[in-house]
Structure formats: structure tokens, C-alpha cells
Amino acid sequence: MIKVLSQETINKIAAGEVVERPLNAVKEIVENSLDACADNIIIEIEQAGKKLIRVSDNGFGMDKKDLELSVLRHATSKISDFNDLEHIQSLGFRGEALSSIAAVSKFVMKTKKKGAPEGWQLTTEGGKNIKIVPSSGSNGTITEVKDLFFNTPARRKFLKTDATERTKIVASCEETALANPEISFKLLSDGKTVFSANKTNNKIERISDILGRQFASVLKNVKAEHEKVLIDIYFTGRDDSQNNKKYQYLFVNSRPVNLPKWLVHCVYNAYKESIPREKHPGFLVYIIIEPSDIDVNIHPTKREVKFSDESQIYDLLYKTLRNALTTQVHPNIQIQSEKCKVKSENKNIINHDGHSASHFSHSALSFMEPQKRWTTEQYASVFAKPSVIPEDCNRESAVNPLPFVFDENIKVLGQAFDTYIIVENRGELYIFDQHAAAERVRYELYLAQLKSKKLKSQQMLIPETFELSASLSSLLKYNLSLLNELGINIEEFGDKSFRITEYPALLGNISIEQIIRKIIDDLEIEKNIDIEKKRDKIIRSACRASIKAGDNVAPVEAKKLINDLFKCDFPFTCPHGRPTAYKISLNDLEKFFKRK
Ligand code: ADP
Ligand code: MG
Questions:
Q1: Are 291 and 86 in contact (CB under 8 A)?
Q2: Closest by CA position to 448, among listed 312, 551, 570, 554
Q3: In sequence order, what are the residues at sequence separation of 6 or more whose Cβ sits closer than 8 angstroms to the Cβ of residue 104?
Q4: Which atom of ligand 1 is nearest to the CA of 79?
């Protein structure tokens, strides 16, 4: 006979999927605190979470009605229909965690919404007898799970020893803390502090708090950017490889996730010639990507993420890491010291998709020909440098980010070949490509002004008019509204003629016609790209053309330019991926001249 199951039974079954062990409950509850924008989260467990899990946060809390709804199955404030999943930014979205946890525990949730006069407390046992009473307390939420699986003894039996269950919880909390450095975390187990990490905007400080100072002190950092992806990589250098795979992490949009095979393959490939075979790299890869370019809904506990374009990330990560690993010292000096050591192993690296990555490979032979081996692109990450841990990792220093390597003290030594700015800064010599640097500064300024809707525009007293060929003019017509949106106002003025009336002031005093021509030329090469890419391409083209045409980077402005450059998010490459600078450290020079 077929029976419709009671809600209680349904919840218990669902609980089996979401809460297999205490770890899952901890993770879900902490994710709720993160989704509630808390910046201070305290996690307490007793008997490895079997007896008690308590998570206290200072997030936005709930009112009485939300509290009531929160323990109902598929009650979520985070999405309202399936389409929302495409843009999901929050960690939770299925609305089944709390109902599942409450179904198999003695559950208490105390919450106060910011600004509300009073707070509320909800209690339930095994999801039954839900009671809500007023309560006192500060803003935020305390979620308490007692006697997990008290009413599902079979599941309780499946649990491992306290030590094993505790280790799983600690590892998960560590990952969450690594993924969210801007949030303070504290984990206590049976009253003892396991770790405590103050919020910081410096990832290396967080890594130091969680994985230890010693490991953090050998890490190097390099960032990469590509259209809708940003990758921030902390990695061990050639001399600091590890004996195991313990320190290998991936975070996608602040979510710790399992390392996919292709990514492990990519990283090991990049390290191929840099570390011995039996050794392992330590790395933390932070990826920021458009939510619509990943699928987070492919795994019950959200440990896996599917990227819509894995090969793009593979290539970017490989290239960046490989460059960073091979260019930490001046290449000429490297040639001197490592000529004999390096073997050519990776002439034809094929990545998982079968794309050849051989254009990144270096052969032993090419060590003899530095000019050929080191293409400009490969310098993109030349700055990979050991990140410094502040002397004193205590509370005060935790608040301040590490001083960036560049500041007002840079010494501009001069200009070479009307193109390069030579700068001394803190024991290092830098050669900047002034065009690439100016392009980067302009590009980020353009984006920032657009984003804040404060694009400063320049009205033309006498509008510039120009004519295009039939095909180019139809391409321009097609893109007129997009250009207008980006502050470049062009009107049709006859059949193939156009008139420019206004353009972004940051492009400077240059022939806007030339800029338009450049934009149209670039658009012509790649016609079928989506609107976002197109917008970005137009901005990049405009910035590049404006620098070329105007060349208004006088040597006297060099210092300002370099300082502006180092305020950029991605100072080391121009928007087209060319490097902006080349570094020679004093140490490299001394080695070269055999003073050391
Ligand atoms: P989900 O996170 O998938 O939406 P949950 O069952 O984990 O589902 O939580 C249900 C709802 O309860 C959330 O959508 C949120 O509105 C609310 N909630 C849970 N925990 C908190 C918290 N710590 N602070 C504020 N709101 C919370
Ligand atoms: Mg949740």
C-alpha cells in the first residue's frame, strides 16, 4: 500500500542527505552566518559536535516571522525561483539545512535583527513542538544544535570516534576561515581554543593564523586576470616544496571547494621542472568569477563547482604560475646559474582538453637565447615575490594591511628610449613601460568611473566629424548605443559620416576619431562576442588608443604614474596582458657582478 509520508519522516530522510555527520551541521550553520554578512563568527563544539554545536554570529539576524520560517523545509530568503541560481552569491540557497538539522537534534536559535527592539528564540526537538518566545541579547544569531541524531540512533552509530569527527570539523572551519579572511573566526572545542583569527584584508596574515607562520612565510603571491575571472595565487616556490599534499586549497567566490582533477593537473604541470618529483607544491588558489560562469548546484554539500570554461582557467592559471615560478630572478642571472640544471621536459604540454600549451614551454636550448625565451608576455608575473609576514602578528597589526611595496618614496632615476621609466624602490630596480602602465591606470579609472556612474565626460566645442567605409560604418552604427553607454557619444551625420559630441574626459585631449577607428578595427576582428566582453574590449581599445595617440606621459609625471599604477588592482599587466614592469633586485645585481 502506498502511503504519503509525514512531514516529520520526510525531514528526517532529507536530513540524511544534508547532515551526515556533525561536520555538515557546522558547515551549514557557519554558511548561514556568512550569508547573514557577519564579520565575527564563533564556533563552539562539544564532543566533536555530537553533544553541542553552537555558532554565534553578528550578522543581520531575523525577525520573528523569518525565524518561524527558517526551520521549514525549502524556506529560504536567498532565491525565489530556479533562475536565481545562475546568479547565486550566497552560500546557502536550498533552504533545507536548518529544517534538516532541526529534525535530528534539539535545536535552539536565538536571533535579533539589527535595529529591532527585541529578539526571539526558537526551540524545537526533532523538528516538533516549535516554540518561539521573546529573548534578550545583542544583534545577530546564535544557533545551537544539541544531541545531534538523538532520534536517529542508526545514524549516530555510523559516526566515527570523537577525534575523527573533530578533525573533520576543524579542517572544514580552517578552510572556511582561509576562504574568508575579512571575517573574524574563533573555533573552540570542549572549551579550548583550536584557532582564533582576527579579520584582516591581508590573505597572508589569515594563512599565517590558520596554517602557521612558518608555511605562510615562504609563500609567494601572484595575481592574474582574464575577462570575467580573477585569480589570486599563494604558492610555495621552488625551494619550499612540501612532503605531502596537505597545503593545497581552492576557493571559488569565497567558497572552499574540492580540487578538481584538471586543476591539480594544471598546478603540477606548472611546477613540473621546478620541484622534484616526490615533492608537492603548497598552494592556495582564490578564484573570483561571475556567478553565472559556474554551477554550484552539482554537489549535495556544495563541495564541487563546475566551471563553464575550465580550459580558460587552466590556461590562465598555468601561464601565471609557470611564469612566476620561472621568473623570480632576473632571467639573465638565472641563465648563469641554472644553465646546466634545467632540462627540457615540457616542450609539448597538452592540457586536459587537448589544447597545446607549448607556447609557454621553455627548452634547455632556449636558455642560451634569453631574448627569444622571454617573450614580453611571460613577464606578466615577474613580480612574484615572497609575501612578507608582519613582524608582529598581533591584533593591531592584523587590522592594517601590509604596506604595499610601492609608496611615495620611489626614486625616479630617469627615462630611457622615450618609453621606459627607471625607478629605484626599496632595494629594487624597476623598468616600467610607460605606455603599458598608463594604459592600466586609465583602464581601471574608466571602469571605476563607470561603476560608480561618475563618468566624467568632455563636451566637444566643435564636434569632430569623420567618414568610414560602408562595412565599418555599419559596424559602428550597430554599436552606437553601446558606445553611448560608455560615454562616447556619436551621432550619425549623413550616410557614412559620423559626428562625435562627447567622450570620457579621462581619454585626454586626443583625436577621438582615431580612437573610434581603433575600437571599430578591434571589434571587426572579433565580431561575435557577448555584450560584456564587447564592452570591456571597447574600453581596453579606447585606453590603448588614447595613450598611443596622445603620448602624454611626460617624464615629470612618471612618479605620479607609477604611484597611480600601484593603486590599481592589477598593476603588473596592461589591460591587454602585456607586462608593465621589469624588476631587478639589488640581490640579483650583486649576484651578477659576483659581489655575493
Ligand atoms: P538556506 O541557507 O539554504 O537559505 P537554511 O535552512 O540554511 O537555508 O536557512 C533558512 C533561512 O534562515 C535562510 O535563508 C535565512 O534567511 C535564515 N537564516 C538562517 N541562519 C541565519 C543567520 N545566522 N542569520 C540570519 N538569517 C539566518
Ligand atoms: Mg543555509
A1: yes
A2: 570
A3: 12, 15, 19, 126, 148, 149, 150, 151, 152, 155
A4: 4
For residue 32, the CA-to-ligand 1 centroid distance in Å is 5
Average pLDDT over every residue of 348-373 = 28
The Å distance, Cα 285 to ligand 1 centre, comes to 28
Name the more confident of 306 and 15: 306
CA-nearest residue, atom 20 of ligand 1: 32
- Per-residue burial over 223-233, b if 16 or more Cβ lie within 10 Å, else e, is bbbbbebbbbb
Q: Is the CB of 70 under 6 A from ligand 1?
A: yes
∠ CA 400-401-402, rounded to 5° = 115
Name the helix (H) or strand (E) containing 504: strand 497-504
Nearest CA to ligand 1 atom 10: 70
Per-residue confidence (pLDDT) for residue 348, from 0 to 100: 28
pTM: 0.58
Q: Is the pLDDT of residue 384 over 60?
A: no
User: Rounded mean pLDDT of the chain?
Assistant: 79
Q: pLDDT digits over 436-457, tens only? A: 888 889 999 999 999 888 888 8
Distance 258 CA to ligand 2 centre (A): 19
